Amino acid sequence: xxMHVSLDGFIEGVKGDMSxxxxxxxxxxxxxxxxxxxxxxxVLGRGMWADYRDHWKRALVxxxxxxxxxxxxxxxxxxxHIVFSQTLKDPGWANTTVVNGSLVExxxxxxxxxxxxxxxxxxxxxxxxxxDTGLVDEYHLFVHPVIINKGKxxxxxxxxxxxxxxIDVQKLRDGVALLVYKQVSTSVQTDQPxxxxxxxxxx
Length: 203
Known about the structure:
28% helix; Dihydrofolate Reductase, subunit A; globular; five-stranded parallel sheet; 5 helices; alpha/beta; four-stranded mixed sheet; single chain
């Protein structure tokens, strides 16, 4: 799971404000692309799918996007996606499958198949729901040097306790701290079999 957060744990400000985030840098993109080298599946929720799909499809054909944007769009175009939704029928992008089954059952099934890692793109409810299944292996957090006090707190959507081990710390040139945690234990009670793939989130 990979995401951008404020120092006090918010992923959005009031009314979706994102102005508090440091601008994307080549350093941040380099790290993201290094993570995605080990990924062969992107997972999203219905709430953010349309905006995500349309944005990256435009980046493939329209001017004005950065080289990093275009490179991500090309990667997304050729990578398989799963969208969890009870209502969506046509995802509108190739290599995309709509799934309306149990989150635990579907992700467990995928993680026990041969393949690379899973990249959890979002949104917040899906990410928190997945976190509370006990199936997230690592947390990659871009912590921005700002306290915003109000907004959408991703962690407050979680309903379980998760014990983590810090496995990497990097200070980026823009003042953002990259923290990488491995999940050690969770209060979630599950009898799921051992897993073979990992679940991560982009910003």
